[in-house]
């Protein structure tokens, strides 16, 4: 075998091994996401927590909390679609009963006026102590934003730590996604999207890497083995 053919063989082997390894890595990532999904499902299936046990709870745990809304600190997160319609995610702090701290509650979705994009829809926020059912989550989802976010009622994003300083509230480092029935006392929709762990993305990448591996092997076999043999047979 000539030096050129050795070089082609080594390059083909290196390419096939690398792409196959990358495909296996993507399958490993998918398996990790499956385990994460199982952990999330197990956390969701546990009994809901109340105010007293909220501190050490993990994400996705169901909660039933009591407190009073801090209505004047309501934030409307813009450019949040739901059911194919443009609108806001409504976030209001809940001052927890029997505690000195509060938690941000992603209460639901409200439509945006097409005639006046800065006009806020009506929102019923009950006074006095209320009960909120939901699940624990991290900060509200972030959208791409140029520069530092502006304050005010309508915002693009909301950082819990920065908002705690701004509002003077002792906010817990998590939020609650309210899961009460649609329109319960406030007219908001709660068709929250399920957490996307990207399983299909990893399977798609794995398929692409394995397909590239098969292509490298196939091209080597054709150009270095089969094609020269066919030429000799027809010579």
UniProtKB/TrEMBL annotation:
Chief site of localization: membrane
Tagged with keyword Phosphoprotein: no
Annotated compartments: Cell membrane; Membrane
Keyword vocabulary terms for this entry: Cell membrane, Membrane, Transmembrane, Transmembrane helix
Domain of life the protein comes from: Bacteria
Any Pfam family matching the protein: SURF1
Record bears the keyword Cell membrane: yes
Protein name: SURF1-like protein
PROSITE patterns linked: SURF1
Transmembrane segment boundaries: 203-223
InterPro entries recorded: Surf1/Shy1 (IPR002994), Surf1/Surf4 (IPR045214)
Family as reported in the entry's similarity comment: Belongs to the SURF1 family.
Membrane topology: Multi-pass membrane protein
Protein species of origin: Pelomonas lactea
